[in-house]
Every structure is written in structure tokens, then in C-alpha cells.
């Protein structure tokens, strides 16, 4: 009888130990959200641009910890290096533009858009066409027959075409010059080696500060957006972790928008704002997380097909995952 009791006691002891070990090892829960495995680190590729600022704000404010997810921000010097890392599966997601999404799909990288990063409104993420200081060109009509520095087959090229067409300028009346490196394009503009250039902020603002003439910018119409995208394989493997990253990014974007002065030093550091603009350049604002519209996506796809960058347009469902956005 005692022997049987001893066996029962031994079994109960083993069960108690197992419960303690496995119970304590259960995934931690984020506040008000589903359990997320801490073993699955979400790796995000970042460039030194203002679009990525919410990632750093979330890190500073410990929003990833609050959401119960581990995030590693992996820095890259160029979009080419970042895209190669995404294709190789070395990172899970990044902020890029719609052209980059389609080109990644074309080369076999299965990716999905989870949200707009910067550019939900025309005021966010400005692009501008500016003329050189000594060109004497003060409006788009004066650009006829002149040279326009762009980066061929890029978002810069797309935005330039849309702005020119919207204002009635025939594309074949302007000679495009492909200058992929933006600092070189800026220098060539300021030294009058080209008549005009299309630049994003903060370089567009820097060009203005150095005497370039603003001909047009895209704040009159929402032409371009950056988007937050993830590898489909990463979404399948860790959808809850990716949703948590989105929640943190969205919360950080709103904190930045509502309290820009609080994050001013972080912004100047991470976005590499030129020294000449550190006192005057505005901290960007971020809209609440939302998906690009079908019209915005299809406009880019149509242009890419016309440029023979992709054989046929991807439809909206092929590019967008509507299930990752926070419910509120």
C-alpha cells in the first residue's frame, strides 16, 4: 500500500514540475493582444530617411516591448542592398515605394503591402521639380527644350511624369537626364550643369535654400506614397509579430505627429538632415495607418507597363494584404 502511495506521489511530483516548467515558459502576452512568440524576431531593413523615423520612435518609447514583440532594425546604405537582403530572406520587411514592390514581385520576391508609410496625404513626403539658380527658368513652360535630372525608371521618374502631365507639359518636350545618385543630381542642379531636377525632401528644401527655383511640387495632389511591406513567408510564419510591429509603428507615427519637438533630435540624427536645414526643416507628420487605394496602385502599375518595367500590371489583391492593419 505504501509502495502504491509512493508511486502516486512520484507521479504527482513529476506532473507538478512539468506544469511549472512549461507553464512558466509560455509565450508572453502583449497588452490586450494575442500571445506572441519571443523567439521570432522581426527584422526590418531601414535607410537613413524620414519615412523610417517611427521605427526609432517605437524603439525609444519601448513600444515593441509593450506590444510583446522583438524587433531588430537592420541599417543599409542603399535601397539596392536592402532589397537584396529582403529577397534573400535576411530581413522580414521594409518601407519602400510602390515601384519597388512591383519590381520585387517581378524578380520572384513574394511580398505584400501592409500599410502606407509616408504619403497618405499630399503634404507627406514631398517631391519637387526645381530649376537651377542661374537658369532663368521660373515656371514649367520655361522648361521646354531643357534638361531634367531624374533617376530613370524610379519613383522620381514616375512623379516627374505625373506632375508634368498634370500641368500640360508634353513629356517629349523635356530632355530627361538619368542621374541616379541624388547628391550628385543636387550638385549638378546647383552648378547649372542641368536646367532642372526632381528631388525629394529634404534635398528639395536644401536646393531651394541654395537658390534653386521651385517650379512645382506634388503637394497639390497625392501622387506618391511609401509603403510598409513584408515577405509573404514572414507573414505566414509570424503574422501576430508583424501585426504587433505595425501597431508599434502606427502608435509611434502618431506620437511623432502630435509631439514633434519631443523627437526632434532623434529625427535630425536618423534622417540625416543637412546641417543647413537643421533649424528650419519641419519634422514630418504621419497619418494613421491605412492602405493605398486601388487607384493609386493601378496608376503606378499602368506607368510601369508603359515603361516596359513589368510585363503586365499586378492587381491590387496580388500586392496588398488587408489583414495586417490594426482593427482600430
TrEMBL record:
**Pfam families, per this entry?**
NMT1 (PF09084)
Query: What family is this?
Result: Belongs to the bacterial solute-binding protein SsuA/TauA family.
Keyword terms, alphabetized: Signal
Q: Solute-binding protein family 3/N-terminal domain spans which residues?
A: 41-259
Q: Write down the superkingdom of origin.
A: Bacteria
The name on file for this protein is: ABC-type nitrate/sulfonate/bicarbonate transport system, periplasmic component
Q: Is Repeat tagged as a keyword? A: no
InterPro entries named in the record: Solute-binding_3/MltF_N, SsuA/THI5
- Keyword Signal assigned to the entry: answer is yes
Give its localization. Periplasm
Q: Which GO terms describe its cellular component?
A: periplasmic space
TM segment ranges: none
Instruction: Identify the main location.
Output: periplasm
Amino acid at each position: 500500500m505504501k509502495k502504491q502511495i509512493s508511486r502516486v506521489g512520484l507521479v504527482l511530483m513529476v506532473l507538478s514540475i512539468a506544469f511549472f516548467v512549461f507553464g512558466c515558459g509560455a509565450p508572453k502576452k502583449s497588452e490586450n493582444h494575442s500571445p506572441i512568440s519571443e523567439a521570432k524576431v522581426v527584422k526590418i531593413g531601414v535607410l537613413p530617411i524620414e519615412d523610417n523615423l517611427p521605427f526609432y520612435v517605437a524603439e525609444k518609447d519601448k513600444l515593441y516591448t509593450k506590444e510583446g514583440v522583438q524587433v531588430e532594425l537592420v541599417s543599409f546604405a542603399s535601397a539596392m542592398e536592402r532589397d537584396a537582403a529582403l529577397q534573400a530572406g535576411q530581413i522580414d520587411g521594409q518601407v519602400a515605394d510602390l515601384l519597388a514592390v512591383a519590381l520585387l514581385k517581378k524578380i520572384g520576391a513574394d511580398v505584400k503591402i501592409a500599410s502606407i508609410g509616408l504619403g497618405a496625404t499630399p503634404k507627406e513626403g514631398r517631391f519637387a521639380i526645381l530649376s537651377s539658380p542661374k537658369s532663368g527658368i521660373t515656371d514649367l513652360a520655361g522648361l521646354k527644350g531643357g534638361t531634367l535630372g531624374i533617376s530613370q525608371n524610379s519613383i522620381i521618374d514616375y512623379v516627374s511624369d505625373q506632375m508634368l502631365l498634370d500641368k500640360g507639359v508634353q513629356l517629349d518636350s523635356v530632355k530627361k537626364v538619368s542621374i541616379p545618385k541624388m547628391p550628385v543630381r543636387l550638385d549638378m542642379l546647383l552648378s547649372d550643369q542641368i536646367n532642372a531636377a526632381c528631388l525629394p525632401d529634404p534635398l528639395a528644401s536644401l536646393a531651394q535654400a541654395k537658390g534653386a527655383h521651385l517650379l512645382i511640387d506634388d503637394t497639390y495632389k497625392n501622387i506618391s506614397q511609401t509603403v510598409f511591406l513584408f515577405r509573404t513567408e514572414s507573414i505566414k510564419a509570424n503574422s501576430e509579430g508583424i501585426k504587433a510591429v505595425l501597431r508599434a509603428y502606427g502608435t509611434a507615427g502618431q506620437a511623432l505627429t502630435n509631439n514633434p519637438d519631443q523627437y526632434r533630435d532623434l529625427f535630425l540624427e536618423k534622417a540625416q538632415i543637412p546641417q543647413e536645414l537643421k533649424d528650419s526643416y519641419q519634422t514630418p507628420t504621419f497619418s494613421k495607418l491605412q492602405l493605398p487605394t486601388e487607384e493609386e496602385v493601378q496608376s503606378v502599375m499602368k506607368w510601369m507597363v508603359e515603361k516596359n518595367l513589368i510585363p503586365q500590371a499586378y492587381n491590387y489583391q496580388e500586392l496588398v494584404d488587408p489583414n495586417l492593419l490594426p482593427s482600430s
